[in-house]
Specification:
The chain folds into two domains: 1-54, Orthogonal Bundle (Arc Repressor Mutant, subunit A); 65-198, Tetracycline Repressor, domain 2 (Orthogonal Bundle), CATH 1.10.357.10. It has helices at residues 6-29, 36-43, 47-53, 57-81, 86-103, 105-114, 124-147, 156-175, 183-198. By secondary structure, the chain is mostly helical. It contains nine helices and no strands.
């Protein structure tokens, strides 16, 4: 007898397994050369199972991107909420960003390279929703420190550029194999740079 809702209970776990398998295949062979059969083999899933969760290879690639963004953003907010001081909050963000890239290089590479791929067209609304929620959570933590005179009151676009712009450049070098500096050392230097740019003196 079929267990009621068994498929639904298992669905999120199975989706993540397929996403992980597809990311591995795209990393190894590239998106155009990867077939659904390749993904099925890597995931140990049937073709029907893959198409049940994702209607096309493009939809699956878009799901990889969105899942990476969700994971990255949720982890950064958690890292930030663990800190109380403005300075340690900024350092925590920089460390988290660089360690996430180190621990998930394939995902990081995919996020850097595929933002404007054709199959991402249908994700604009979800991306806006995720980014808006992320910005609210980040701003909610920083606003008391800005009011207290610990952080410079800058427009949000400039704030984020100063906070993560250098990290993004280092991350590009890291995932391309061109970074000479260890991630831990880089996090301390770039954290200090971000604090110098955003922290209030005195």
């Amino acid at each position: 007898m079929k267990t009621p809702n068994a498929t639904h209970t298992d669905s999120p776990r199975r989706q993540r397994e397929i996403i992980a398998a597809a990311l591995a295949c795209f990393t190894e062979k590239g998106f155009p050369a990867t077939s659904i059969a390749d993904i099925c083999k890597k995931a140990g899933a049937s073709t029907g199972s893959v198409y049940h969760h994702f209607k096309s290879k493009g939809r699956l690639a878009a799901a990889i991107y969105l899942e990476g963004i969700r994971e990255y953003q949720a982890g950064m907010i958690d890292a930030l909420l663990d800190e109380e001081s403005a300075r340690e909050g900024i350092f925590a963000i920089v460390r988290y960003h660089l360690m996430w890239v180190k621990q998930h290089p394939d995902w990081a590479r995919f996020l850097f390279q595929k933002r404007h791929a054709e199959y991402m067209d249908d994700t604009e609304e979800e991306m806006k929703r995720l980014n808006a929620g992320f910005a609210r959570a980040m701003a909610g933590w920083f606003k008391p420190h800005i009011r207290a005179g610990k952080i410079k009151p800058l427009p949000w676009d400039l704030f984020m550029s100063l906070l993560l712009g250098p990290c993004q450049e280092y991350s590009r070098q890291f995932i391309s194999g061109h970074a000479a500096t260890d991630v831990t050392a880089a996090a301390e230097v770039l954290g200090a740079v971000a604090w110098a740019a955003l922290g209030m003196k005195g």
